[in-house]
Amino acid sequence: MNTNNLGLHLTLDLSKCNTEKLTNIGLIYDFLLDLPKAINMQTITLPYVVKWLDKGTKIEGISGFSMIAESHISIHTYPERKHIYADVFSCKGFHVKKVLSLFLKTFEAMKYEKRVIKRGFIDSNI
Q1: pTM for the full model?
Q2: Mean pLDDT, the chain, as a whole number?
Q3: What is the count of structural domains for the chain?
Q4: CATH number of the domain that 37 lies in?
């Protein structure tokens, strides 16, 4: 099997975030609009951002998605738990520390877990 790295897939689990920021649809929209520029990616659609009320919760969360030429960025907020789950997938390299820093600063997260997955392979036996 011949394996080649296609790109990076960063997943972030942020906790102890600022609840007001997790419910601010304008902030999430702007973040998804600005993040690609900050990491030298090209946005190909405007962000799609919606509020939702999960069963058993009283505070609406927000889900947002930004399609970029290099792949995508997504965010899902859970304000009652003060959590954000996000991912950035790109076939073009990017600075993981910069992305993490922008998320931590914007949403005032006190804790986080990050995972970086090297994606993609070519297998002529498939």
Answers
A1: 0.88
A2: 91
A3: 1
A4: 3.60.90.10
